[in-house]
Amino acid sequence: MPNTDYKPISCTFHDILEHHAMRGDVVKVVWEASGVEREGSFWLLDVSAHDGADWVKMLPVGEEASAKPFEVRLDRLIQVDGQELPRFC
Hints:
The chain is mainly beta and about 90 residues long. It has one helix spanning about 10-25, and strands spanning about 25-35, 35-50, 55-60, 70-75, 75-80, 85. It has one domain (about 10-89): SH3 type barrels, CATH 2.30.30.520. Strands 4-3-2-1-5-6 form a 6-stranded antiparallel β-sheet. The chain is globular and about 35 Å long.
């Protein structure tokens, strides 16, 4: 089912995410999930589009070997590597 409430983010911030994913950087990410602010250090694995929205796939750093990648919708991001998404909108 498409995400009809998705709000596209700025192209500049999208480029920043793709840059980190391409380099395999570990970055601090802050995002909103179900009304709660979450944060942690992650490898950014991929930036992709599906289900009517753009997503970033992340893998937690320092987790046990069984940690699995997960996705965050880009319009739920607050900050990545010290860059705040609202500054780019």
